[in-house]
Records
---
Amino acid sequence: MSTATPTSRSLADAFTAKGLRLTAQRRVLLEIIESATSHLDAAGLLQLARDRDARINRATVYRTLEILKKLGLIDELDLMHLNGEKHYYEIRTGRDHIHLACFECGRIEEYESPVFDQLKQEIAQKQGFSIGVVRMEVGGRCSICVRANSREQ
Amino acid sequence: MSTATPTSRSLADAFTAKGLRLTAQRRVLLEIIESATSHLDAAGLLQLARDRDARINRATVYRTLEILKKLGLIDELDLMHLNGEKHYYEIRTGRDHIHLACFECGRIEEYESPVFDQLKQEIAQKQGFSIGVVRMEVGGRCSICVRANSREQ
DNA sequence: GCCTTAGTTGCGACTAGTCGCAATAGAGGA
DNA sequence: TCCTCTATTGCGACTAGTCGCAACTAAGGC
């Protein structure tokens, strides 16, 4: 959920463009991240990587994620700690979005809005803050659970 | 950084009002949290609590913070992991605010805005989401560091 | 195709936070 | 004031994430 849009076609391209080495481990990790359809956590990423190739260490997964964060190619999410302390990751594609986490059913919704864009612009202008990353998460009850509850009594 | 404003005068009052026991450990922790002037982390809170009273365990600190979060009396912050993975806590006072974390100097700024309030309202209305907690954090460079850098070359 | 070398990896030990369980101690009633 | 009962605590073991260091290997030069 952050500000610039990546310019390179693939994550691997971005790595080599920055003079970073494309090791076997990184190649696997980057492919998995690129093809992921849902929010990945580090443990899941490690598992998928090991399924595909063998020798890869937990620390390498974390270090690779760290680099991708710093390059602004992925965003790190807490998802309001719905499933404990762990973090989730998603590729930074187009526009920043807000994550809405339902404490009742666990659903995660993504939300984008011109007002959100306006808010970021305001922070940059009024506060003189040069924005690198934005993370906005909301916890509560999704529309489905709200409706279900009001029907209940 | 969240939505409802607490109604009770002190955290201890809120505990008893909810039928929660006021143990010696909780009394100490709540007092420290109430009188804190800066963002506290769990380890700092534990240390301060042990300085004041003796027997208090790490787990109790985390459990007490958990309760306060659930009651909406404190907010949990990451501060963009400026100092590693740990969390910070602040009493929920008036209006929700955004935390701006400078990656260069480590300064934390707090920012509030009608646009932020409007955004939350929009999420509730358009998405039908019942908001419990909102966390918005921005990482980048503060105005001071931006100015310093532009002057540099 | 081989050498060199600096970036990267795995390992193991560490910090932050969570959880189950038995022991303890608030708080309300007698 | 004492008793009871259940919420709460401490403990120890666990998960998630980080870090220093020695071993390894990608990538560029010959």
---
Amino acid sequence: MRYYIVDDDSASRMMLKKIIVDGELGLVIGEAENGEKSIAPILSTLPDIVLIDFLMPDLDGIETIEKLKSQGFEGQFIMISQIVNKEMVGEAYKKGIEFFIHKPINKVEVQTILQKTAEQYRLRDSLLTIKESLASFTTAKPALKKQNVGEIVRTKLSDMGIMSEVGSNDLKEIIEMLVYKNNEPNTFPPLIDIYESLAKRQNAEDIKKEMKAIEQRLRRTILAAIQHIATIGSIDYTSREFEHYAPRYFEYQEIRKLMIEVGENRLNSSKIKVNIKKFIQVLYLEVLESYKNI
Amino acid sequence: MRYYIVDDDSASRMMLKKIIVDGELGLVIGEAENGEKSIAPILSTLPDIVLIDFLMPDLDGIETIEKLKSQGFEGQFIMISQIVNKEMVGEAYKKGIEFFIHKPINKVEVQTILQKTAEQYRLRDSLLTIKESLASFTTAKPALKKQNVGEIVRTKLSDMGIMSEVGSNDLKEIIEMLVYKNNEPNTFPPLIDIYESLAKRQNAEDIKKEMKAIEQRLRRTILAAIQHIATIGSIDYTSREFEHYAPRYFEYQEIRKLMIEVGENRLNSSKIKVNIKKFIQVLYLEVLESYKNI
DNA sequence: AGGTTTGTAGGATTTAGTAGGATTTCGTAA
DNA sequence: TTACGAAATCCTACTAAATCCTACAAACCT
């Protein structure tokens, strides 16, 4: 389970985190000190469960939940607060929270409730999977496991052996931005615009410098992918990865050139052309395709 | 659902009853004003869910639950009380109650929680049925066992044939540290920082020396992994281990170089590049992926 | 003792960011 | 169709920091 904590009291956040880690209940993938600051990261990381305080400056718990739901967030909420007014507890339940825990925090209580919520989540998920595979059994269409955009991208990058390259995270974020924000899937914005919005999203101080850095990271990452795919091809050009990625993502001449060089054991001799645009565009289209089919 | 209510306050009993009837949540099959008087009827009518007050004369809520469980009653308990002392809430959860609801009673809250409990009950039941019907034709059941981070790492390291290397323990500890402490899963700290925190964690006397030692242990361990995977590959490059680990964890060119050498039976001739960073980063991301599904 | 593994130390190489420039692309006009 | 120019895209080169490597010493087996 992946948790996100929203609470203006840092001591509470610490305690909750400790309870989750100690109880091996899952991962805390982020935290924020008020509703306003939590919106963007929650929408981009999509935690399974959000632990949220009721009383917070700027945006209170209920408003935050409303906002997240209106943006399509489907995770579960557990509210943790010291409210005594029972009307508000009722309100919170009406908004669809899973449970309301009263402060002060009690370790056993929180652990039990989180375990229960997680169990419920898994139970529902299992039943859903069964239901879907039964449905696809009748329509003869293979059932796909649901994934978010980040996961789809990561799978592909991992196939290309560049999961750990610095630029991989840039690629992931770029595709996320494109999938979530690009209204017309048939158009593709210029790379400069993409670099610029990514730089802004990363809160870079000097946007221009960051754009340059992004470009170089991407170039080097994609170059690594080319070399990797070419090496795969020189061992076994019938492999799934080679057949899929080599012709789609890269300039085929470049791959061929590299394969010949690899075969003759002379490395990094000639220069290779890196087509960043083609790579990102293909990646985007493929991700979009499999995302839509979910 | 069949409910039984135990509460010394008749007004509370009335309200709960009304909530259950109004919300069409099920049937109230009996009630009692204290623990003592409830034991016999509960054991004879076996309700699915018992709503029980904490503070009651004669026999309090927790004692009643203990007594019923010791007599073999397997229904679920929901405690409803106006207790403020959080220790007692913890105690109640330890005794195995499903939920603790704070008085005064709020209609929406009680309804939501009863619905949830009922849903959980039905979900478990459905899954149990499915599992049993599946068991009739699957002999060996895979038993999706809950794993902790250490176990996931160990599985992968043993796939790569380096379980007994000295550096394996370092690897395990590094991944544990990263999974539990890294707040932003998208970023990856520099290796130097990782070495440093690991050295500190191991209470080394001379941190700098220990960092150097860690680095060498890791290098040698990963080199062993490369050689192991290359050997597998030179025998059968379609094997599961080779296909998975070779392209993701290592520089594929290096694997290729080694495979050719192994094939020609000339050993340890050329030097192999060891990419520690890539290895750890991929290991971390993969562990994270499988851990969050817990 | 003889061989193997582990630790130590310093140096070599690679990588990521930065900046400027070269090349390619694409619409438009000749 | 060809030529042109601006914009977009791609490439090279440099530096500091991170990462990787070699080689020898020490410790640990048998």
---
Amino acid sequence: MNPRECSLASALNVIGEKWSLLALREVFYGVHRFDGIVRNTGAPRDVLATRLRTLVDGGVLRRVRYSERPPRDEYHLTQAGLELAPAMLGLMRWGMRWVEDAPVSATVFTHSCGGQLDAGIVCTSCGEDVGSGEVELPDTGTAQGS
Amino acid sequence: MNPRECSLASALNVIGEKWSLLALREVFYGVHRFDGIVRNTGAPRDVLATRLRTLVDGGVLRRVRYSERPPRDEYHLTQAGLELAPAMLGLMRWGMRWVEDAPVSATVFTHSCGGQLDAGIVCTSCGEDVGSGEVELPDTGTAQGS
DNA sequence: CTCGTGGGTTGCGAAACCCAACTCACTTAT
DNA sequence: ATAAGTGAGTTGGGTTTCGCAACCCACGAG
């Protein structure tokens, strides 16, 4: 009867609103300041202001002061924010592969070895790298109710 | 000046609206019908109806008729939908790890070997499994403009 | 012939979104 | 010494979207 409790829903409470992930993308890309994020995302300024606040409150970003008088802060990733990288990469990759007219986007993340990073699925017990599509669905049968 | 073109934005156009990912979660979990998805997500019926439509239009879900008269369809994952698994797993894992009071959620995806699957980042050139947090950010310096 | 179920649609008030303009607090040009 | 520009928002307003409850239609069961 009640909605399923799920960490996905919890995650979406923090980063699931419109513009949140695009704002985070900019910070990942090294754009740390309000106007830059506005320009690169196209988000309305007021909406972005509240998004950044919830991201800070949610522990994903932290403000770093770079000027007293006038007081101005940059937005930087926390550890929690950094660890969103796999999920964001997964979405980017998916968009590239499956959404028509998505840009082939040259901007990607690089490993320290110089190679490009990719999001994948790994089996925690046998360590095997699972190709997308070989996921076994949980055996909930056709159960519909809660 | 213009917003950055990015496959992440394209992806979010398809699966970024409220309830979309939760609806997809249900389909992943084997709940294929409207009422089941409504019950398990808590989404308003009207919103869910339009979300399912955009997911179908976006090629993530497909309708599978299971009854003529009255005509009734189930929602099933397409290949594109299945390949959202890494991204969704990434978000679930992140929620579990970083969001307070997120359920420890026993429902996960399993590999054919019986182990639990996890989302990770892999280097495409050296093949190394990169621990979250070791991501090298693109060297955009402090560039702010477009 | 009424009840229940599945899959929606409709109406309407509340909330969120978007945009343009405005505010401070400075810094740099003229 | 004004004037114009930058950075980081806030404010006012109109427009969409959300969310909820109620309704509808087709059927099947009792």
---
Amino acid sequence: MEKNRAITSLAALAHDQRIDVFRLLVKAGPGGMIAGQIAQTLAIRANTLSNNLNILSGAGLIRSTREGRSIRYFADMEGMRVLLSFLMEDCCGGHPEQCQPVLNQIA
Amino acid sequence: MEKNRAITSLAALAHDQRIDVFRLLVKAGPGGMIAGQIAQTLAIRANTLSNNLNILSGAGLIRSTREGRSIRYFADMEGMRVLLSFLMEDCCGGHPEQCQPVLNQIA
DNA sequence: TATATATTTCCATAATACATGAATTATGGA
DNA sequence: TCCATAATTCATGTATTATGGAAATATATA
């Protein structure tokens, strides 16, 4: 992963509404949620949400598919995995005992 | 973890120099690095680095101890773990098959 | 075609973060 | 004590980012 992409992803998550949206989609799981549901659940205006969904998409953290008039959004777990890999790169190279506790206990 | 703390941590990492510093300290492992070494390795001015180290510390992503005139910095793996837990919260609740691939393949 | 719903785009203003030079604090050695 | 080294703090001009109103686009239904 290139560094600029990682920074884009981290900046996307470092935002009051977007972190809520991402975590909501993580919880929603494979079923995802349509934009309107997200806006209603989090009490966000449609245009602000649209902008923030676009930023999360550009950051590779969520995906979407159109369903009639609605658009359904999903957390992109692969994007998240790539981001974490970049941040933890070479951590476990010489010192696996320092890195492993980070990964355990997350579930 | 409270949301504002997570946002602070993510914003700390979403920065060209700070992400370099963090990853350098992750690679350095338990031995850490003194500030001067970091500045030299990454070619960062002392005052800029100091400011960015302070931001990373405040975000709970690195720690430090003084060693004579120098200060040694370490990646804070526990802080990282807490951040990831917050982001992935409840992911594995109903759909462990979506969350697990994120955690594997990182090492 | 006309209307309603869902979402996005455009734009202006306000707020925030950034890098740098200069000065300051802290520690160790002569 | 005096000086050198290591790191931090402060002030400031610049640039980036966020927000919300209004308008526009896309799709479905009557």
